[in-house]
Amino acid sequence: MSHRNLNPCLIVFLILATACAASAPTPTGTPTPDLVVTAQVVEATQAQATADAARTQEALAAAETQAAEATATQSFVLTATPARATEVAAQRQATRQAATAQAIVEATAQAQPMLGVIQQLHADGYLGRTEGDYHLLEDFDASWAQLNYYTFWDTGYAPADLVVRADAWWSSASDKADWWNSGCGFVFRAESEDNHYLAYLGLDGWVYFSAFRQGNYVDLGGKSYGKVDIPTGEAQLMLVVEGDKFTFFVNGERVYSKVDKMFGSGALALTLISGTNKDYGTWCRMKNIELWELK
Prior knowledge:
The protein is 30% helix and 38% strand. By secondary structure, it is of the alpha+beta class.
């Protein structure tokens, strides 16, 4: 945001757990063996060993079966994954394409009224060409209370040639403000705070053009539109800039044109001119701010 005095006119785990069974203590003496008991122990041991071997074989067979099933499943997964990935990618692409197509339809519908305005301006001789890019800007809502000063906010666009229009509302905290120093409008071809053009509708009903060149105020004239409502009111504002010719419209009516070659390019901003120091000063709100950036 920048501001400037316009005197005299205005102005961001793996955890492994191994259970180690404790070894039985070694007897200190060797008893006389009981052959019957020994035979029974040997027989039982052999039977246990046979059972263990059978269980081991069953476990090995089960393990082999599981391994085979896992291999088959893995093979299926590896085989199916690329196909599934392709299907998902195709679905996403189709979704993106549908969203893009819908966005184009919506943007075209949104831009259509502005395109009609551009074509009419061309037919009426206010534009030499019509090709361009359409942008819907964010709403503007601000107030400023510093007599004979204006302030402006960059839109983020810097078209040399353009058509910009907006529905504007205003209000003054004073019913005795300097109405010629109160209003809403546009700063364009702003090279810097000290070098730019200014165009606005004053609340005295006049359209004014001016400039700052190297920090010095330059009056570029103006013309009366007619009475506007004060201290509150509204109007549609439109500025047409092409080459060295600038034209300002109020409610669709051409009010004032000016030819000047001071600046050839620079940023576009929205401006608010204060005609009083009282309370909130001058308030401006702009909605439906449409920019046609001429190519």
